[in-house]
Write a structure and sequence with these properties.
Layout (H helix, E strand, L loop, with lengths): L1 H14 L3 E5 L2 E5 L4 E6 L5 E4 L3 H29 L5 H31 L2 E3 L2 E3 L5 H4 L1 E2 L1 H24 L3 E4 L5 E7 L4 E7 L7 E2 L9 E2 L13
Antiparallel strand pairs: 1-2, 1-7, 2-3, 3-4, 5-6, 8-9, 9-10, 11-12
């Protein structure tokens, strides 16, 4: 679930504004993919794409990188559900997505700030040079969700490693055999361990070796191992 949730967060991050400004009935919203909307109370909003190269390049690079991260996370989610992914591969893919997301968002924020500092004009509205973008605009949901996505990916790595190191037991349809799942470095391997081996009319405990158990015993009378 962690890769899926992280991927959905990144999708919403792209669709949501990365920056917002509001003052006296005037609002500005800025998207990572270079869309800007301006609204004035009582008038329909105006939308425009920034043509300044200093904004276009960071927008293309950042959006493309996040889309790549989304694809990676969804592939990771599907592979995890099918249980055809080993621990190392899961960790590498999750960390790559998280680091890529954090790095590209920081790059985007710095690039936009530098471009804005040089001054620009949007739909006749002049933004004079000498002002920092993130001093004029508030951080939007797009930025916040991007970081949340990365955090979720890191948490997923920790949870996956924890459970992959656990030993899980279940009884197979054959009541004489217990199935033990043992985590390995490459995958969760299945190992069959006999619960009891006939010794005439008596058995022994495979856990502690205690003998003289009844053939219909459910637990070892010495160590309590479930047969």
């Amino acid at each position: 679930l962690f890769p899926l949730f992280a991927g959905l967060c990144t999708v919403i991050a792209i669709l949501a504004p990365t920056a917002h400004f509001g003052y006296s009935g005037i609002t500005w919203d800025w998207w990572m993919w270079d869309l800007v909307t301006m609204g004035v109370s009582g008038y329909p909003p105006i939308s425009a794409f920034i043509s300044d190269t200093d904004f276009v390049i960071p927008s293309i690079v950042s959006t493309s990188a996040l889309l790549l991260s989304i694809v990676n996370l969804f592939i990771l989610s599907g592979s995890t559900k099918k249980r055809n992914l080993d621990t190392k591969e899961f960790i590498v893919m999750s960390v790559v997505s998280a680091v890529l997301t954090i790095g590209i968002v920081i790059y985007y924020m710095v690039s936009v700030d530098i471009a804005f500092y040089d001054g620009m004009t949007v739909e006749g509205e002049i933004f004079p040079a000498g002002y920092h973008f993130w001093e004029a605009f508030d951080v939007g949901l797009g930025i916040i969700l991007s970081f949340i996505s990365a955090i979720v990916s890191f948490i997923g790595v920790g949870v996956f490693r924890y459970y992959s190191n656990q030993k899980l037991f279940r009884v197979s349809p054959n009541t004489d055999v217990a199935t033990r799942y043992v985590s390995t470095k490459t995958d969760v391997a299945t190992k069959y361990i006999p619960v009891s081996t006939p010794m005439g009319v008596r058995n022994y405990c495979p856990e502690c070796g205690h003998k003289n158990l009844r053939t219909d015993a459910k637990f070892c009378t010495k160590c309590g191992f479930q047969l």
